[in-house]
C-alpha cells in the first residue's frame, strides 16, 4: 500500500479538435463550472485536425477564472526549452498561477521530422528532455543574477538572461513509461503523468518503485513526485471491465489507486459532456470522501510534510519541525524546499528563516501561533512582504505568512464596507473596488500588503482627500498571543481596536480588516520631472503649493542622487481625485500647473484613469533588494529651514533615494488620541535610504533631527530606542504599553515596533 499523501486532483483530457474551434473551449469552461481542478489538452503539432495546443491553452486561460491548465503532455521533440520556459511562465503570470507544465520527450518521430524537427532515437529524445529540464528550471530561477549556461548534446544556452519566474511554484510533470524516463521523473520532476490504457497489470506498481528509488537516490522523498493518471474508460450502467462500469465501480477503483498506488491526480479522457458531469459530480466527491476517511483512520502524513535527505539536512536549530501540525506542514516551506527562494526574502530585505508557515484560515493562524511559541526562535509576521523596515523576515526563525488569507469581500453596499484578508495586496483591493467607483487610500504601490499598512498608518495617494488608511478601518479580527480570536471595533475590545490602528503588529496577528471605502471615480495621475538645482527653493515652493491645494490633490516627491555632470532632478507623482465623482480634468490641470511652477519643468505626462490604474495589482517576486538602511521622519511644513536641512542631507551623499510624501488634509481632521498613530498636524513624511546605517544616522541626526516632528516607523531601520518615542510620543506610548500588557504580556510580538508591555 502506497499513499503519498497528496491532495486529490480531478481533471479532464480534451481533444483539441479544430473542426469546431470553440468546442474544446466550451468543454474547458464546463470543466471549471463542474468544479474540476484541472483541464488538459493533448499536444500533436503535426496533426492538421488539431488546434495549436499553446494557443488553445492561452485562450482557455483567458476564458476561465479558477481551473488550472496543462498540456498532456507537451511535445519537447519540436520545441526550444528556453522558449517553453518563458511561454509557460508568461501564461502562469497572465492566468494568476493556473498553469502546470506537462512534458514529454516526443512521439511520432516521422511526423515531427516532416515539420522540420531533428530526428532523434528514443534514447536521444530522453537525453534532450533531461537537458530541457535543466534549461527550463534555469530560466525560471529569476533571482539568480548569473547568466544561464547549459552546454548539452541537443540543447545549448550560452549566457541567456533568466526570467520571468512563474507566478507560483510551477510543477513539471513528465509523461514517462520506460525505466530511464521513470528514473528522471523520480530524480528531477514534480509529477508523473502516464495513461492507464497503456499499462498491463502490475505496471503501475513497478513504475512507482522505479520512481521512488530514483527519488531517494537523489536525496528526495518519493512523495515529492505527484502521481497523475489519464484514465480512459467510460462510466456506464453495467460493468464490462476495468474503468468500464457504473459510478460505484469507478469510485472503488479510483479509491484503491489513490490508497494503494499513490495516484492523486485523476484525469478523465472524454469529450462527452455527460461523462464529464458524472465524473465531476458523482465520482470525484465520493472518491475524495473515501480517501479522506481512510487517511484520517490511518494517520496519513501530508505529502508536503515528507522531505528527503537533502531537505532534512538544511533544517535550522531551535525548531521542532516534526511537531508541526499536519494542516500547517502541508504548505510550510523549509530551507531545503524548492520554493524557499521565493519566500525567504521581502521586498528590500534579505532573509534566511528556518521555516515559513502559510496558513489558509484563522484556525490555522491560531495553530501556527501556538506552535511557534514552543520553538526557541524569533517570529516574524508577513502580510505581503513589502515593508521597508524588513521586519517581515528573519534569519533562522519562523515567518508566519498571511498571503493565504487575501479575500476581498463587500459586506455592506450602503456604507461601502469591505472585509479584506490581511494577506491581500492593495493592488488586488483596488482592482475589486474600481468597478464600483470606490477606492481606499493605500500607499503608492499595489504590491503592499493590507495587514501591514492598515495597522501602522497608511500614507497614500488619496491621503489628503481621505486621510490615513487606518482612519477608515472599522473592525478587525485578531489572533492574540494566547490563541484567542477576537473581534475588535469601537464596541468590542475598544482598547485593542485603538492600538491596532497605528501599532497593530505589537498586539496580535490580524487576519482581516473591515474598511469603509470612499466613493472615488477616475483620478488624474501626473508624473512630472523638475529641475532640482535649487533643491531648497524647489522644496519650499512645492510644499507651500501642496498645502494650499484642494484636498483632492496629493503629491509625492522623489529625489534621486545626482550623478556627476548631470542636472539634479526631482520626480513628482501626483494624484488629483474628487469625492463621489470623476476628477475634473480642467481643475486638475490648473492645480498641476501650480506644481509645475515650483521649478523648471523638464517633462510631464498625465492621464485620467481609475485608482486601480495608479495602485496596480502586482505579483511579488521578492529577492532582498540590497538590504538598505533607512530613516524616516515627519515634517510639519517644508519651510525655509526644513527645506535647507533636506538639501544638506542630499548633499551629504548618504541617501541614495529620498522621498517626501504629502500627508495632512483629511489626515489632520482626526484627533491625536483617536488612534495609536498620534501625528495629526504634520503635512509631510520624509524617508531616506542609504548604504550604511551608521553614516546615514549621523547625517540624518545632524540635518533632519532638528527639524523633524515625529516618525513613521514603517520606513525606518534604525533600532535605537528613541525611535519608539518619536513614533509614539507620550501619552500614546504609555497607553500602548498598557494595552500590550493585556493582550501580549509575554511580548510574543516583539519584532515589529518593539513596544514593551507595562509592568503589572
UniProtKB/TrEMBL annotation:
Needed cofactors: FAD
Coiled-coil annotated residue ranges, if any: none
UniProt domain FAD-binding PCMH-type: residue ranges: 348-520
Pfam family, one: BBE
Superkingdom of this protein's organism: Bacteria
Record carries keyword Flavoprotein: yes
Keywords: FAD, Flavoprotein, Oxidoreductase
GO molecular function: FAD binding; oxidoreductase activity, acting on paired donors, with incorporation or reduction of molecular oxygen
Transmembrane segments: none
Family to which this protein belongs: Belongs to the oxygen-dependent FAD-linked oxidoreductase family.
Protein name as it appears in the record: FAD/FMN-containing dehydrogenase
Origin species: Promicromonospora thailandica
Amino acid at each position: 500500500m502506497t499513499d503519498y499523501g497528496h491532495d486529490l486532483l480531478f481533471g479532464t483530457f480534451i481533444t483539441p479538435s479544430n473542426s469546431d474551434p470553440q468546442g474544446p473551449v466550451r468543454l474547458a469552461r464546463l470543466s471549471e463550472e463542474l468544479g474540476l481542478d484541472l483541464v488538459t489538452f493533448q499536444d500533436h503539432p503535426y496533426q492538421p485536425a488539431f488546434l495549436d495546443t499553446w494557443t488553445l491553452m492561452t485562450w482557455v486561460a483567458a476564458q476561465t477564472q479558477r481551473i488550472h491548465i496543462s498540456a498532456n503532455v507537451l511535445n519537447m521533440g519540436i520545441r526550444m526549452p528556453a522558449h517553453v520556459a518563458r511561454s509557460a511562465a508568461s501564461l502562469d503570470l497572465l492566468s494568476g498561477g493556473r498553469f502546470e507544465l506537462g512534458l514529454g520527450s516526443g512521439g511520432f518521430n516521422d511526423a515531427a521530422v516532416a515539420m522540420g524537427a531533428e530526428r532523434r532515437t528514443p534514447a536521444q529524445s530522453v537525453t534532450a528532455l533531461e537537458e530541457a529540464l535543466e534549461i527550463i528550471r534555469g530560466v525560471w530561477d529569476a533571482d539568480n543574477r548569473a547568466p544561464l549556461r547549459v552546454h548539452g548534446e541537443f540543447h545549448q544556452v550560452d549566457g541567456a538572461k533568466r526570467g520571468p519566474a512563474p507566478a507560483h511554484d510551477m510543477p513539471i510533470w513528465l509523461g514517462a513509461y520506460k525505466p530511464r524516463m521513470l528514473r528522471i521523473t523520480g530524480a528531477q520532476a514534480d509529477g508523473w503523468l502516464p495513461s492507464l490504457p497503456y499499462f498491463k497489470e502490475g505496471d503501475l506498481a513497478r513504475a512507482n518503485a522505479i520512481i521512488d528509488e530514483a527519488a531517494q537516490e537523489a536525496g528526495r522523498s518519493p512523495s515529492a513526485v505527484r502521481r497523475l493518471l489519464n484514465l480512459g474508460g467510460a462510466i456506464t450502467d453495467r460493468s464490462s471491465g476495468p474503468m468500464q462500469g457504473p459510478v460505484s465501480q469507478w469510485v472503488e477503483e479510483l479509491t484503491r489507486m489513490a490508497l494503494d498506488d499513490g495516484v492523486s491526480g485523476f484525469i478523465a479522457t472524454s469529450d462527452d459532456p455527460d461523462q464529464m458531469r458524472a465524473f465531476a459530480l458523482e465520482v470525484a466527491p465520493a472518491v475524495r470522501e473515501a480517501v479522506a476517511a481512510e487517511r484520517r483512520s490511518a494517520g496519513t502524513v501530508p505529502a508536503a510534510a515528507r522531505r528527503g535527505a537533502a531537505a532534512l539536512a538544511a533544517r535550522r536549530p531551535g525548531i521542532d519541525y516534526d511537531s508541526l501540525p499536519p494542516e500547517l506542514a502541508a504548505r510550510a516551506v523549509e530551507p531545503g524546499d524548492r520554493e524557499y527562494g521565493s519566500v525567504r526574502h521581502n521586498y528590500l530585505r534579505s532573509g534566511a528563516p528556518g521555516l515559513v508557515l502559510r496558513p489558509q484560515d484563522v484556525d490555522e493562524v491560531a495553530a501556527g501561533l501556538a506552535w511557534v511559541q514552543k520553538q526557541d526562535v524569533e517570529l516574524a509576521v508577513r502580510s505581503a512582504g513589502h515593508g521597508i523596515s524588513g521586519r517581515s523576515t528573519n534569519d533562522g526563525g519562523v515567518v508566519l505568512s498571511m498571503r493565504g488569507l487575501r479575500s476581498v469581500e463587500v459586506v455592506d453596499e450602503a456604507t461601502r464596507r469591505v472585509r479584506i484578508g490581511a494577506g491581500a495586496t492593495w493592488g488586488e483591493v483596488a482592482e475589486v473596488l474600481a468597478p464600483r467607483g470606490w477606492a481606499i487610500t493605500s500607499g503608492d504601490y499595489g504590491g503592499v500588503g493590507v495587514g501591514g499598512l492598515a495597522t501602522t498608518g497608511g500614507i497614500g495617494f488619496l491621503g489628503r482627500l481621505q486621510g490615513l488608511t487606518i482612519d477608515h478601518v472599522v473592525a478587525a479580527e485578531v489572533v492574540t498571543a494566547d490563541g484567542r480570536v477576537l473581534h475588535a471595533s469601537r464596541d468590542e475590545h475598544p482598547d485593542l481596536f485603538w492600538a491596532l490602528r497605528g501599532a497593530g503588529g505589537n498586539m496580535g496577528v490580524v487576519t482581516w480588516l473591515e474598511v469603509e471605502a470612499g466613493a472615488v471615480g477616475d483620478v488624474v495621475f501626473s508624473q512630472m520631472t523638475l529641475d532640482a538645482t535649487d533643491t531648497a527653493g524647489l522644496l519650499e515652493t512645492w510644499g507651500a503649493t501642496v498645502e494650499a491645494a484642494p484636498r483632492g490633490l496629493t503629491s509625492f516627491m522623489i529625489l534621486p542622487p545626482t550623478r556627476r555632470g548631470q542636472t539634479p532632478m526631482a520626480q513628482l507623482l501626483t494624484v488629483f481625485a474628487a469625492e463621489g465623482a470623476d476628477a475634473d480634468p480642467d481643475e486638475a490641470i490648473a492645480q498641476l500647473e501650480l506644481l509645475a511652477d515650483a521649478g523648471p519643468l523638464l517633462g510631464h505626462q498625465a492621464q485620467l484613469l481609475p485608482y486601480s490604474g495608479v495602485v496596480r495589482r502586482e505579483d511579488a517576486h521578492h529577492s532582498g533588494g540590497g538590504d538598505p538602511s533607512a530613516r524616516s521622519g515627519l515634517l510639519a511644513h517644508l519651510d525655509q529651514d526644513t527645506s535647507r536641512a533636506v538639501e544638506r542631507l542630499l548633499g551629504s551623499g548618504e541617501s541614495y533615494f529620498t522621498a517626501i510624501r504629502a500627508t495632512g488634509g483629511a489626515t489632520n481632521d482626526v484627533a491625536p488620541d483617536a488612534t495609536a498613530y498620534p501625528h495629526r498636524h504634520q503635512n509631510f513624511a520624509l524617508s531616506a535610504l542609504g548604504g550604511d546605517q551608521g553614516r546615514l544616522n549621523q547625517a540624518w541626526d545632524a540635518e533632519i533631527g532638528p527639524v523633524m516632528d515625529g516618525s513613521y516607523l514603517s520606513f525606518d531601520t534604525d533600532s535605537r530606542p528613541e525611535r519608539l518615542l518619536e513614533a509614539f510620543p507620550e501619552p500614546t506610548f504609555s497607553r500602548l504599553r498598557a494595552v500590550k500588557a493585556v493582550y501580549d504580556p509575554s511580548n510574543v510580538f516583539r519584532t515589529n515596533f518593539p513596544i514593551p508591555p507595562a509592568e503589572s
